[in-house]
Amino acid sequence: MTEYDVRAKALKDAVISCKVPEILKAVEDAKADGMEAVPIIEIMSEAMGEVGVLFERGRIFLPHVLSAAAGMNKTMEILGPELKANSTGNEKSAIVVIGTVEGDVHDIGKSICSTMLQCGGFDIHDLGRDVPKQLFIDEIKNGATFCGMSALMTSTMMVMKDTIDIIVEQGLRDNVTVMVGGAPITQVFADKIGADIYGESASETTEKAKAILNS
Ligand code: B12
After folding, report:
1. For labelling alongside 117, which of 37, 42, 148, 174 has CA 20 to 30 A away?
2. Ligand 1, atom 42: closest residue by C-alpha
3. One domain for residues 9 and 69
4. 150: Cβ below 6 Å to ligand 1?
5. What is the pLDDT along the chain (215 residues), one digit of tens a residue?
């Protein structure tokens, strides 16, 4: 195992431990070893998926998941400023409205996307979680040219399609690039509901959004 692999495993194990102090210590150790913010976040995001699997199998319970989520949020508080300081920005800028769709409170991945898009030079209007459809529409009417929707549950995925339908009905479709993401979302689903960008990760989302902005 390389030194990087050892550090990556320590980060993953810390998230899976669901203990905030262990998570923060692993992040500090990784930073001290020179690991950059983006790989730290990506490794930890993947480990959160494993936390979900353990939860599903009944090996851990809701308080554990909440604690791992708190560790993840605290990590973003620590790494966010570093990400912003190292950001390369972009020559052009655009307003991005982003949020987790109505009925869904999962916001960790959405917030990571917000931070990375902001580092990519976008002007972020983050509406948070459980966002009513109309709020996305209002932001588009007020000048947002990118609309990012996150959904983590099979029961809320279709809210993305409903929102796109309203965007079309209101004659706003040509004004906005629609981006969708979240663990159950796939490229196939994104194509089916008529989204422009599917982002598997925050860095991929930022690259794809930048490519459209600069095209
Ligand atoms: C953490 C978590 C919670 C936390 C959320 C805390 C928070 N503030 O977000 C809490 C404990 C509150 C929670 C609650 C619930 N949860 Co939960 N939760 C999870 C868990 C373990 C991890 C999610 C996560 O944060 N992943 C890490 C992030 C970084 O990954 P990500 O969100 O996928 O984001 C990345 C990409 O997808 C992408 N991306 C994300 N958003 C966007 C947006 C755009 C625009 C783009 C382009 C890209 C993009 O970029 C991100 C970063 O790289 C998942 C398991 C899983 N496998 O996903 C279950 C999971 C999503 N939860 C689940 C369930 C069922 C629930 C509850 C209903 C449980 C309950 N019985 O009460 C409630 C939901 C209540 C509600 N109405 O929403 C199920 C959903 C099952 C399903 N098929 O629908 C899962 C899959 C667990 C499971 N296996 O059962 N949960």
Report:
1. 174
2. 181
3. yes
4. yes
5. 788 899 999 999 999 999 999 999 999 999 999 999 989 999 999 999 999 999 999 999 999 999 999 999 999 999 988 887 777 766 778 999 999 999 999 999 999 999 889 988 899 999 999 999 999 999 999 999 999 999 999 999 999 999 999 999 999 999 999 999 999 999 999 999 999 999 999 989 999 999 999 98
Which domain covers residue 123, as residue numbers? 95-214
Domain match, 53 and 100 both: no
Same domain, 36 and 116: no
Whether residue 140 contacts residue 167, with contact meaning beta carbons closer than 8 Å, is answered with: yes
Strand partners, 100: 150
- Give the whole-angstrom CA distance, residue 79 versus residue 118: 13
d(CA 206, CA 214) in angstroms, rounded, equals 12
Query: How far apart are the CA of 214 and the centre of ligand 1, in A?
Result: 31
79/122 same-domain check: no
How many angstroms does the Cα of residue 183 sit away from the middle of ligand 1?
Answer: 7
CA distances to 34, 93, 106, 141 from 48, in Å? 22, 31, 12, 35
The last residue of a domain, from among 64, 85, 106: 85
